[in-house]
Amino acid sequence: VGQEAINRGFLQAFCEGVLLALYGEEPEERDGGEDEDKSDPPRRLPRGSKVGFVTYDRHSNQDWRYDTENMSQAKLEQAQMLVMPDLEEPFVPLGSNGLFVDPYESKPVITDLLRKLPELFSRHKTPEPALLPALKAVQASLAATGGKIICSLSALPTWGPGRLFLRDKNDLHGIETERKLFTTEHADWRKVASKMVESGVGVDFFLAAASGGYMDVATIGHVSALSGGETYLYPTFLAPRDVQKLTKEVEHAVIRDTGYQALMKVRCSNGLQVSSYHGNFLQHSFGADLEIGTIDADKAIGVMFSYDGKLDSKLDAHFQCATLYTTARGERRVRCTNTVASVSETLLEVMRYIDQDAVVNLIAKEAATRMSERPLKDIRNALTEKTIDILAGHRRVSSGSHPPGQLVLPENLKEFA
C-alpha cells in the first residue's frame, strides 16, 4: 500500500481483482436481472478454504509496520487492525488460526474491508515498503497447513530486513558479470523461499512499476519461482488502461486448482537416465525428489533424458512421473503419468514423429536456466549451434534422396528452422 499504488490506482484495482476472484460478478451484472437471490453467492473456492489479509507499509510516524486485518469472528461488523511493528523478528498476531476466515461466511466484512483499503491508506505517503518481514510472518501463519500468498507490490522494498537496492546501473550489460542481474545473492530471500517450499506455501507476485522504475524482479521473483508461484509484471501500470488485465489475472491466480506440498519423481527404463530438470522447484541434490510449494495446471517442468546404455529396438521405452500433493480440501493424493514410446534405430523415423512444441519448450527452458551461469551472448550462440546441429543431422541422413545443396527441413520442424 505504497504511495505509487495509491496514486496510480493499483491498490484499488488489486482489491477489485480479489473481490472478483472470491465472489465473481453480482447477479445483475451477470444476467442483467435484479430478482435473483443475492444472499447465497456461488462458492468459487473449495469448501474449507479460508482467507486472511495483511497490509505492509511505512507509517507516517516512521513506525514501520505491516497491518493484519482480523476477521476471525464472523459476527464482526468490520475488520480489526492489529499492528505488528517488529520487523527484525516478525510474529503472527493471534496465532495462525486467528487470522483466517471462511470468505463466504464473512462476505460483508471482507467486501467492506477491500473497498475501504484505498481510502484508508490514501493519506499515507509511504514510498518505501518493507516486504520481506511481511512474507516471513505470512509464511509462519501458513506453516501448519500450507497455502497460497497473493502479494502486490508497487515500489522497490528498500526498508527493513531484506532491503533491496538498485543493481541494474547499465554498467553490467554485455559483459561477463551481466548474469548476476538474473539471479539473487541475497541470503535472506533465498532462506524465505526455501522455508515456503518446506511449508507447502507458494507466492504469486503482482509487481507494478508504475513509473517504469526498477523492481529487482530477479530477487523478488526468486521466491515465487522456487515455491512454484508466478510473477506478473506491469512495467508502466496505469489505471484505467491496465485495470481489466490486472483484475482478471488476480482472479485466475486465486481460483485456479492448486496442489500444495508437492513431491515429484521421474523414472525411466533401463538404458536411459534423467540428465536434467528445468522449471520452478527445489532440489537439494541431483537425483532427489523435486519439492514444490504449490503446483497448478499452468505450471510445466521439463525433463531431459540421456543414454546410459543400449536400447533394444524390439522393446518399448517407459517413462513415469509420480506427483504426491495435498489438495485444497486437505486430501493427500498421488498422480501418476505413464508414457510408453517406441524405440527406433532410424533417425528419419524419429524426425517424422518429433514434437516441435516439446523441442522448443525444452530448449527455451534450458536457455533460461543458463542465464544465471553464462553471458547472454554465449547462450544465444549455443542456441544457434544447437539448431544447426539438429538440422544438419537431419540433412545427413536424408541426403540420399535430395540433390546436394538443396535445403532439407524436417516436416515437423519447419517453423523451428
Structural notes for this entry:
By secondary structure, the protein is an alpha+beta fold. The protein is 31% helix and 21% strand. The protein is built from 11 helices and 12 strands. The strands form 4 sheets. It has a 4-stranded antiparallel beta sheet with strand order 9-7-11-12. A 3-stranded antiparallel beta sheet has the order 1-2-3, covered by helices on one side. Strand 5, helix 7 (217-227) and strand 6 (230-234) form a beta-alpha-beta unit. The protein is globular, with a radius of gyration of 25 Å. The two termini are 47 Å apart. The model is unreliable at 27-37 and 59-68 (pLDDT under 50).
Short account of what is shown:
The chain is an alpha+beta fold and 417 residues long. It has helices at 3-7, 10-23, 27-31, 107-120, 131-142, 187-199, 217-227, 243-255, 347-352, 356-370, 376-397, and strands at residues 53-58, 64-70, 80-84, 147-153, 201-208, 230-234, 258-268, 272-278, 290-296, 302-307, 317-326, 332-341.
Radius of gyration based on Cα positions: 25 Å
Which stretches are low in confidence, meaning pLDDT under 50 for 5 or more residues running?
27-37, 59-68
Net shape: globular
Classification by helices and strands:
alpha+beta
- Calculate the mean pLDDT score and round it: 83
Question: How does the major sheet shape up?
Answer: 4 strands, antiparallel
Number of strands: 12
Helix content: 25-40%
Helix tally equals 11
Strand order in space, largest sheet: 9-7-11-12
Task: Report how far apart the termini are.
Answer: 47 Å
Order of helices and strands: HHHEEEHHEHEHEHEEEEEEHHH
Strand content: 15-25%
